[in-house]
Amino acid sequence: MRNRNKSFGTGFIVFAAMLTLGLCATSVFAQAEAKVVDILANALKYYNEGEFDKGINLTKALFERDDLTPQDSIGIYEVLGILTYAKGEEYQKQSFSYLDKISKVGPCIIHLPHEIWPAELRDKWYEILKAKESLACPEESRSDIKTIAIMEFDNFSIGKYQEKLGPLGKGLADFFEHDFRKISSMKVVERDKINYVLREHELQKSGAVDKSTAVRAGKILGAKYMVFGSITQLDDRQTRMVVRVVSVETSEIIASVDKEGAPHYCKLEKELVEELAAKLDVKLSDDISALIKEGGTESLDATTLYAKGLEYMDRYDYKKAYEFFKKAYDLDNGFVEAKRKMEIYQPLAT
Question: Which end of the chain is more exposed for a tag (fewer CB within 10 A), N or C?
């Protein structure tokens, strides 16, 4: 196996392991669970370093414990699925089998998938959920949770900007998804889960997806709101971004915001997230507002490179995806979203 660049920190990987288990501090097994977290975090460090078999052996040893909770078991199967998938195409079926084991423990005990899952594993998970009629979990229909699904943005730019900004609609949907997740009272449907439903229910027969079709997908996913957006750039100095929120129940537009200014799309996106939250009667604390403002990039080139990486990610071309995420990060070392995606796809790039 070729040597991999090990320059990236493991902070995100350790954080992913914590998310995997969904620990409860009041559990009688809190101390034991914390040890499980540590072991899974170390297994994911091996993933980051390309030492997949070492991570698998470390993770499998956890089955010898007699104090495992359902959350522990899900975490173990999840990490095994990620590590096994990384070994190559001949291990794909085995990696999928771990997802099936998770579904038997309980598809809605922990919200999955986590961001660290490669795109193909995510699609397989949605296939399993569909077979179990669990694409939307009960928690997503709670009255105190605003569940939203964000569609890819339309590009109404003209001339060279139509081509240059072609993939940007996918990137903006990804940014909106990431920032809305920082708001605890909102539940965001994964972008690739929306695409899966559109494909599997034959709702995406042509390149475009109209509002009524998207709303149908939203109903399947248990969403209360659908978010639609568009960008229009006419020259190097000025662009316009429009975002509308549609009620899945009534198909009516319940909120609309727009911004004009220099084509700093991440900055515009973050401003619109806060404006939309206000129009949806979602109160943001100062801490949450500060979190939303974090990340992003002022570089249009870095933004479009990131969006191109998402395109290749969706095609399971992880080498190309990694290359574009790296190019985006190289242009702006403060672009944390690009770095996060690099850490996920770097082990799969070779």
Answer: N
